[in-house]
Design a protein that fits this description.
Strand content: 15-25%
Helix content: 40-55%
Bound molecules: zinc ion
Strand order of the largest sheet: 7-5-4-13-14
Number of strands: 19
């Protein structure tokens, strides 16, 4: 059983409830001041961090819901904690599109200039990469430019996401390619009276100018922790929009002198560049809510002079290790890289692992939870294979309780949709689908015990299609397991295995056919043909090593390709 915990919300609850303001909808104590947007109602109720309740998800238009996702800071390999967040939001995006008919335009910002990147580039040995992009202060002695290091890990990140079957965003936007736009964004915030420049060439957001509008999301003001003692801010809680250049750091020119953008303003600028003053959905890990998203909101609303920029903030829970509530992170050095993970487990198993907890929950990473996901996936795939064999008439079986199955199928479809519409409750949806698999299996088993009855291929076909469609929706392919992957010609390889299995079936049937021969002659015949039977078994075992699993049914043999990373680690005989 997968253990989940609710995301820690302690600090969020500290937010003082504000009274409703004129002209704003006020429907309940929480979320007052939030304006319910007009547009296309997706039919989904989503937990909105802005209101801390489930709100109807209404996007600007069905064909173009705008979604901004905070992307990675590209300074190292991504780990499983990142994978968990991006896979969970990928699942939500797929559900929105495929179940609720809402197409998403997703933009992801790539932070390719940052303290961590600069520090890492300084530590790296010379990789002979040519620097590009920004300038570097004279007198530098960097072996790898931060820009080159960032490109390297950006590519790495994209490869990891593809390996995890995470759909790419509609567009990636890099910070270093939008510095002039960021500068213009900051200029406008200053002009609107919400930021100031210091003598040292830093620009800060003036938090006091926002009044009680700051803290919409989390209700906290940034503290002075981690601030340099020589800070030239007016108030400890003000945050940097522009950082004056330091020696040996990349910099760009600006009206305030050479420097580089602060972190929060990158996302605000990029999201506003593409989507303007209205953003439907904003997503990220729960650790980004404060101060990052809170500051993004402050910047955007100061820039656009609008009462509400982002309408829905979705936050994913952390991946924890060792069940001790310890977040998987770079700094705690308790992480597994995505690449290492995928050497022994398939992306489908990881996806099912993610589906088995709410995207908002913290989730414990454990071998046991992974094995359970693997077992469920295997069970669903085995059912699909058996049901298909039944439809083809290859599985011995008679009547099934057709009306019971039709009823169950209808009920499952309704339950899945209702679960997904309730804040993307994938836990309930998977349970409903696995329950259908269970009942389908039960009927197939019962049918096998009464092989002469009437057959019901239609209902089993409908069930297997529905189960496969569910997994397909969330990015898991059961049917794909039929194909033979390979660089050459998958179709030719598939035919080859097909021929081999057919030949083996003929040999096996010959070996098993004792004919009409009586008594002693029959015994002798079986003895003579025994080596053939043994050879058939041997071939089955040998092909299993290559991931090809042959099942002998009554009168026929079927086969499927097993992804070794999806299978149980125990050897198959
Ligand atoms: Zn961001």
């Amino acid at each position: 059983m997968l253990r989940t915990r609710r995301a820690r919300v302690g600090a969020w609850l500290l937010r003082a409830a504000r009274g409703p303001e004129p002209g704003r909808s006020a429907s309940g104590a929480r979320g007052q001041g939030w304006l319910q947007p007009a547009g296309y109602d997706t039919g989904v109720k989503v937990y909105n961090s802005l209101t801390r309740r489930k709100d109807p998800l209404i996007v600007s238009r069905a064909d173009a819901a705008s979604w901004y996702s905070c992307g990675p800071t590209v300074y190292d390999h991504a780990h499983l904690g990142h994978a968990c967040s991006y896979v969970r939001f990928d699942i939500i995006r797929r559900i929105l599109t495929r179940v609720f008919g809402c197409n998403v335009i997703m933009v992801m910002g790539i932070t390719d200039v940052d303290d961590k990147i600069i520090r890492r580039a300084n530590e790296m040995p010379d990789l002979c990469l040519s620097p590009f992009g920004s300038g570097v202060r004279p007198g530098h002695h960097m072996s790898v430019s931060p820009a080159s290091l960032a490109r390297l890990y950006e590519e790495d990140f994209k490869q990891d996401m593809a390996a995890l079957k995470v759909l790419p965003p509609t567009a990636y936007l890099r910070v270093t390619e939008h510095v002039p736009q960021i500068v213009a964004f900051i200029e406008r915030i200053i002009a609107n009276g919400h930021a100031y420049c210091t003598a040292n060439g830093n620009v800060y957001f003036d938090l006091q100018s926002r009044g009680d509008r700051y803290g919409k999301l989390v209700g906290m003001a940034p503290g002075p922790e981690g601030e340099p003692v020589d800070s030239d801010k007016r108030h400890a809680s003000d945050f940097a929009l522009w950082k004056a250049a330091k020696p040996e750091e990349p910099f760009w020119g600006s009206p305030w002198g050479d420097g580089r953008p602060g972190w929060h303003v990158e996302c605000s600028t990029i999201a506003s560049l593409v989507f303007g003053s209205r953003l439907d959905i904003h997503s990220g890990g729960v650790d980004l809510a404060f101060p990052h998203h809170e500051n993004e909101i402050a910047q955007c609303e100061a820039f656009h002079r609008c009462p509400q920029w982002g309408n829905y903030f979705l936050h994913s829970g952390h991946l924890h290790v060792k069940g001790g509530g310890e977040k998987m992170s770079k700094s705690l050095k308790n992480y597994i890289t995505i690449k290492d993970f995928l050497r022994s487990a398939s992306p489908d198993v990881f996806r099912l692992f993610c589906l088995r907890s709410s995207y908002r929950s913290a989730v414990d990473y454990s071998e046991g939870a992974l094995l359970e996901a693997r077992r469920l996936l295997r069970a669903a795939a085995a059912f699909a294979e058996d049901a298909r064999a039944y439809v083809r008439g290859q599985l011995a079986g008679g009547s099934v309780q057709e009306d019971v199955l039709w009823e169950r199928l209808g009920r499952t479809k309704g339950a899945v949709r209702a679960a997904l519409a309730d804040d993307f409750d994938t836990v309930r949806a998977v349970d409903a689908v696995m329950d259908l698999v269970h009942h389908g299996n039960k009927q197939l088993k019962a049918a096998a015990e009464e092989p002469r009855g009437p057959r019901s291929p239609a209902v089993l076909g409908a069930i297997v299609a529905s189960v496969e469609q569910f997994f397909e929706t969330v990015g898991i392919s059961l049917a794909e397991r039929q194909g033979v992957p390979g660089a050459g010609s998958p179709a030719a390889l598939h035919s080859l295995v097909e021929e081999l299995v057919r030949f083996r079936l003929k040999v096996r049937q010959f070996a098993l056919a004792s004919g009409e021969a009586p008594g002693e002659a029959r015994r002798q015949l079986l003895l003579e043909r025994r080596p053939l039977l043994e050879a058939c078994d041997e071939l089955r075992r040998d092909l299993a090593v290559h991931g090809i699993s042959i099942k002998d049914r009554s009168g026929s043999s079927t086969w499927e390709l097993l992804d070794s990373r999806t299978e149980d680690p125990t050897p198959r005989s």
